[in-house]
Amino acid sequence: MQATPQNTIFVTALTHTNQDFFTVMSTARKNDVFVHVLKTNVYPPNLWRLKMVTLHHHLKEQKSSGKEYFFFFDAYDVIFLKHRDEILRRFNEVYNGITIFNADYPRSLYPYTNSDVCYAQDELKSTWLINWIQNGDTETSRMLNTGLFAGRIDDYLSLFDTVCLVKSDFLKRQMPFPLANRLYEDLSVEKVKQDDQLVFWLTMLNYPNLFHIDSRKELLTVAATGSMMERNLEEYRTTSRERPLKDGTYIGSAVLLHSAGGSVRNMGFVYRHQLHEPVRTSEASGAFIENLSFMEK
Amino acid sequence: MSTNFSSHGSSHWLPTASCLFLVSENIVGYLFGSKDSTREMILEPGDYTLEITSPEPSWKHSLWTVHEIPEL
Predict the structure, then answer these.
(1) pLDDT in tens, A102-111
(2) Cβ–Cβ of B63/A25 closer than 8 Å?
(3) Residue A78 covered by a domain
(4) Complex ipTM over 0.85
(5) How many domains does chain A have?
């Protein structure tokens, strides 16, 4: 069975309702992607419950109503580059039966910290673990990012059960990971309780075969859109750099971008390349281009 | 529930409805001109559509649906 418009849902969780949210949705709208927006009465920084628990609840419900596949994306920093049908075609080519996650930037293991402060990260402390995960691979990122992932609902629900077990194991200091004691010292218990990405990569340490990280940027990728100022978006697919997969501005064959952080600077990429629902009149289009010109100086 | 976003925007919508940039060049300026990217807007559960009354002809798109998930 393959993913089709009829059996696939696109889901986000309403973590932030700001301008970036509408930018994301305008790129979805342009590409005929209809979105399920999940809303609950939980707020950041508890992204575990806000994103993952609500997603789990919704996927179980959608599964019972006949849906088979899903795409999950952050609500304020993801960009749809291609039409829904092309996204599904690429997914069907790439998907190997294991939930596929976008790879984070190389050497980024967010949030590795012993602090409870929101967005805190102790980058230097994570070096040993990054080296352990990369296992000598210096060309592609094996760093998991939960801002953008997709797969078969059944597979993901099974993975989520495992993720919950690992989370419980960490909190009870029972993780089977051979270097677990160092993680207990380095990572904040409160952060593990609240941060979805942290719990997922803890799970990946124990069960790497349950994860498909899109290191080669075949479907999904993080992208440094705030630094991508070329006029032609396609140039970012044909970089001449010697080690392109380590380059934050190279997007490979990806059809969805994770701009990791949002903000006007990063999401302005959408307007530079007119990836949103277009304006409807010639007068308006002219004004639109004129308005954008200052962004390129 | 259906919510209409006017391309001209009423005084009710202008402070928060940044989705208006979808259809109006003026709102593009508003988006880039604003330094406040954390402004909150309440979305109630239901189906959201974008209904354009100007320019003609009018058209209407389904945008998204908001699902209220109980606290679990």
Answers:
(1) 999 888 888 8
(2) yes
(3) yes
(4) no
(5) 1
